[in-house]
Design a protein that fits this description.
Elements (H helix, E strand, L loop, with lengths): L1 H7 L26 H7 L18 E4 L4 H6 L3 H17 L7 H4 L2 E4 L2 H10 L6 E3 L6 H14 L27 E6 L4 H8 L7 E4 L6 H19 L4 E5 L2 E3 L3 H14 L5 E3 L11 E7 L2 E6 L7 E4 L1 H8 L13 H6 L6 E5 L3 E3 L13 H29 L1
Parallel strand pairs: 1-2, 2-3, 4-5, 4-6, 8-12
Antiparallel strand pairs: 6-11, 7-13, 8-11, 9-10, 10-12
Helix pairs in contact: 4-6, 9-11
Length: 396
């Protein structure tokens, strides 16, 4: 199984955000910092996470083209990123210990999406690039800084005190029932640009947490969004991922789905895309309404587009890193473990999956999911046919 996992989930050095390294800590920052970063580090409780006076294990670079000194020198993102990469190479070539902590803690903090792209072009390891959006206001910058500190191990990667708090992230404030969030890594610039081009402006982008292994960062993100929704009474809550493709008549069909769910309580999850319909899944009800077929099931796999009711949100909020490895404790595996799970889906599926993108968890192409999704749709159609045949026979 270990060999199979390596084959199926091999990493791409250039694209694998799943390669977020194990950062060494405690750490301290040194050298000149832009005023924005220096001021942010002075705001409690963040300053409390830098407790050590030991030498920094590896170089840290802050790339902000709006900083006064940078602007005066006429530098742009590309020049700054190439300079940072050169200094990293100089550091590694200087005879310093480049194993373990030294290599793992080298990191590039960048202020804009353009700088993220420039870092990739410069060849900076993508797992060590973090977007701190200094030009989007102090709250967004603070959230970016916290994301990096979580990945660096400077903030406990737990959802209970003194760990991660939902109020640190502006996108999780002021949630109302039927709120719509899109989980997206700010460092995955291409995916974000493509999602913005869809015109789904009623979805708020939530900057996903990064951690090693990456599937735990994704699960922590879902648990955090669920906790924020439960605390604010934002039930139900819609969460999508930024590689979705809206299906035909998406808006009309989604409105019909919402009407159906409001009129038929007792469901836990509406699944817009079943990526892998497991053997043994049971169809419990089939309804044809407003031109589409709605199907009730007892299982779901896939997080590309889901609407979560209270019981599902409460279950997601209780995910723990200690629950097991990638074989049993990914967030969709955890969701599937909810006792008595009641799922509604549609056929055809409400959304698709962009096979032109790459997984930000495992680094491989989304094309690997295409055949699985197609097989799930065929299996679901067969289950519906068998269910309706039994229902018809029972009536006679």
């Amino acid at each position: 199984m270990g060999l199979l996992a390596r084959i199926l989930h091999r990493k791409s050095a250039r694209h694998a955000f799943g390669g977020t390294p194990e950062f060494a800590g405690p750490m301290r920052l040194r050298g000149a910092l832009s005023p924005g970063l220096a001021d942010m580090l002075a705001v409690p409780p963040l300053c409390d996470f830098f407790l050590s006076d030991a030498d920094q294990a590896g170089p840290l670079f802050w790339v902000d083209p709006a900083a006064e000194a940078v602007a005066a020198a006429g530098c742009d993102c590309a020049a700054l990123c190439f300079t940072a990469l050169g200094r990293l190479r100089d550091f590694l070539a200087a005879g310093r210990d480049v194993t373990g902590a030294a290599l793992a803690s080298a990191v590039l903090l960048v202020a804009t999406e353009a700088c993220v792209a420039a870092a990739a072009e410069a060849g900076f390891p993508p797992g060590r690039v973090f977007h701190l959006p200094s030009q989007e206001g102090p709250d967004a910058f603070r959230a970016g800084l916290i994301r990096w500190l979580i990945a660096a191990g400077a903030i406990a990667p737990e959802l209970t005190p003194p760990g991660i708090r939902a109020e640190w992230f502006p996108g999780l404030g002021g949630l109302q029932p039927d709120a719509r969030l899109c989980l997206s890594l700010p460092e995955a610039v291409e995916r974000r640009r493509r999602f913005r081009s869809l015109g789904l402006t009623d979805f708020t982008l939530f900057p996903g947490l990064r951690y090693s292994p990456a599937w735990q960062g994704a699960a922590m993100s879902y648990a955090l969004m669920a906790r924020a929704a439960m605390a604010q009474g934002a039930v139900p809550l819609t969460i999508c991922e930024d590689d979705l493709i809206p299906g035909a008549d998406f808006r009309t069909r989604l409105a019909s789905v919402h009407s159906y769910l409001q009129e038929n309580p007792g469901w836990d999850v509406f699944s817009g895309l079943l990526t892998n319909l497991a053997e043994g899944t049971r169809v419990t009800r089939v309804v044809r309404q407003e031109g589409q077929m709605l199907i009730h099931l007892d299982f779901t796999t896939g997080m590309v587009f889901n609407i979560y009711n209270a019981r599902a949100l409460e279950h997601l909020s209780r995910w723990q890193r200690s629950g097991g490895d990638v074989a049993v404790n990914t967030i969709d595996d955890w969701l599937g473990q909810l006792p008595g799970l009641q799922v509604v889906t549609s056929l055809p599926f409400l959304v698709g999956h962009d096979s032109g993108q790459r997984s930000t968890i495992f680094g491989f192409s989304n094309q690997r999911y295409d055949r699985v999704i197609e097989a799930s749709a065929r299996r679901l159609a067969r289950l519906v046919e068998e269910f309706e045949a039994k229902e018809a026979a029972a009536r006679f």
